[in-house]
Amino acid sequence: MTSISYVQQQHITRLCVRCGLLLMQYGAEAAVVVDLSKRLGFALGMSSVECSLNFNAITLTTICDERCITTTRDTINQSINVNLLVQIQQIVNRTEAAVDNGKLTELTTLAFDGLDKTVYSKWLVGVFVGTSCAAFAYLNGGSLSITAVTFIAGMVAMLTRIYLSKFHFNPFITVIMTAFIASLIGATTYYFDIGNNGDIAVASSVLLLVPSFPLINSLSDILKGYVNIGIGRAVFTYMLTLSACVGIVMALVLLQIQHWGF
User: What are 27-42's pLDDT values in tens digits?
Assistant: First the structure.
């Protein structure tokens, strides 16, 4: 194998940490982040790759010809994007299968630069989230009027969440405001005596705030030995749940509804 210079190793190290960083930001579990970052480093000629994860940071070390380079990067939470995670895995697979002709690192860099980060239209997401909330209300015995109110509440709440996230509001404030608006619209079924059961509308309208994906990831991380990041993700998930509860209570208190759930 051709000897790898210090500058080339720096480039490879930055590429590996970029891979891990993107995986963490878009919702991959810790085991996947570590595995793909190491595989990419080995495919590009490193003799050893070590990766350490925290809730909001990644530290990665590459070793080649007894030369060690370490780098650390902060992470920024993004919305979950499974399509992007699949693209990164495909890049790593292609890199492993390719023959190193001296330009493999540059080709892999270009592949990361060309990642497709497009997402669905906010209106399309809002409509489908509203539909899922409405379907949940209907399946739980809600009348058509309850289902319609739940659809509007879920759609408006999701559009609000997307809007606030676009401007990088604190995630807990975003969840509080989203839960407040969803509950406010859903609770109009009490205020104007709409439908057969207002409890169903209020409960179903905040269904979009259930942090199922992060909760599953946190449990998976803990079970696979990544306790630090698993606990961090679990605490973050519980704080999101608490924030949703705060938003719901604020709406019910504002409308002076004291009998919800009873």
Answer: 889 999 999 999 999 9
